[in-house]
UniProtKB/TrEMBL annotation:
It comes from Chrysophaeum taylorii. This is GST C-terminal domain-containing protein. Transmembrane segments: none annotated. One of its GO terms (biological process) is glutathione metabolic process. Residues 55-186 form the GST C-terminal domain. InterPro entries: Glutathione-S-Trfase_C-like, Glutathione-S-Trfase_C_sf, GST_C, GST_superfamily, Thioredoxin-like_sf. One of its GO terms (molecular function) is glutathione transferase activity.
Length: 186
């Protein structure tokens, strides 16, 4: 059985919040299909992305979906400590995303620097949870796409700058960017 991901235009015009889910499924080698948002099963959910898992459970909320898929395919850390940090890093990135959308980072460069400093400190092995990408890295791509629009000054944070360069060379990430479909709507 496969996963079904539901998102605006079935990701034909942009990936948006579905990007990290797609990347995680691709990295796992999981079977999945992408359908339009209006094809999602009705239920106690508000908005996309929505995923129906092979066991028939359907859920929404990007980071929750990532945590489930990460656990299914061992992309959420290889030991208990890494799994705990994974949860924290996802929420740190969500805070960064929220502040980016609220223009807090663009209007307060010192705040942006604090976040970049924090991210830099987490990248001790190339990627957020070690020497290979995890759900944190795939979620960070979505967040960084927004950061680049509003607070792009991360060059003085060498680990963050290297991570951004390196993550774009990971085969599933490169394939997504080479697809010509933007991560964010234009």
């Amino acid at each position: 059985m496969s996963h079904t991901l539901y998102y605006w235009t079935a990701c034909r015009k942009f990936y948006g919040r579905a990007a990290p889910i797609k990347l995680t499924l691709d990295a796992a080698g999981a079977a999945y299909e992408i359908k339009q948002q209006d094809e999602a099963p009705k239920g106690p959910r508000f908005t996309v992305p929505i995923v129906t898992f092979p066991n028939g459970v359907t859920m929404s909320q990007t980071t929750a979906i990532l945590e489930v898929i990460g656990e299914m395919y061992s992309l959420n850390g290889l030991n208990p400590e890494a799994k705990m940090l994974c949860k924290q890093y996802l929420l740190d990135l969500t805070d960064i995303f929220t502040e980016t959308l609220a223009d807090k980072l663009a209007s307060d460069p010192t705040r942006a620097e604090k976040w970049y400093e924090l991210l830099d400190s987490k990248l001790t092995h190339g990627f957020f949870l070690g020497d290979k990408p995890s759900i944190v890295d795939f979620y960070a791509i979505f967040v960084f796409e927004w950061l680049l629009k509003k607070a792009p000054e991360f060059d003085k944070f060498p680990k963050v700058a290297k991570w951004w360069k390196d993550i774009k060379e990971v085969p599933v990430v490169k394939k997504m960017y080479d697809s010509g479909i933007p991560v964010l709507p234009e």
